Amino acid sequence: MTSETVRFALFAEVFAALAHPKRLEIIHTLGRGEHTAGQLVELTGLSKANLSQHLNILKARGLVHCDKCGTFCHYRLTSPKVLETCEILRQLILEQMNLTTQHREEMAEVVPIRKEAF
Q1: Secondary structure in 3-state letters for the chain
Q2: Which residues form the HTH arsR-type domain (predicted)?
Q3: What's the pTM value of the predicted model, to 2 decimals?
Q4: pLDDT digits (tens, 9 = 90+) for 76-87
């Protein structure tokens, strides 16, 4: 594999980790500050087991870090750029939605052809 192929594979792995709504919710929650697993269970409504699976994926992709303090695990984003990346994607989606809406509105403004003209 070339270094470029490896780089694109790593990009794909990170985007795959971001491709689940609950993982995005976890990232959004951690963007507001560090939380324990128990707090994340309460805030996201996930079961402990399901939360653990999502956190493992986010940790494996280097998006979330866990600091162990006694019996508690405190989770945080590894970088503010994780949240910034999600914000850029959110803005892109909103732009696409606006373009789609604008296109629909433009199509609705087209004056229908009168049958009498034929």
Answers
A1: CCHHHHHHHHHHHHHHHCCCHHHHHHHHHHHCCCEEHHHHHHHHCCCHHHHHHHHHHHHHCCCEEEEEECCEEEEEECCHHHHHHHHHHHHHHHHHHHHHHHHHHHHHHCCCCCHHHC
A2: 3-97
A3: 0.80
A4: 999 999 999 999
* Alpha-carbon span 35 to 59, nearest angstrom: 14
Please tell me the distance from the alpha carbon of residue 52 to that of residue 91, in angstroms, as a whole number. Answer: 29
Domains identified in the chain and CATH numbers: 3-79 (1.10.10.10)
Please give the Cα distance from 33 to 75 (Å, whole number): 9
Closest CA to 52 of 32, 18, 75, 30: 75
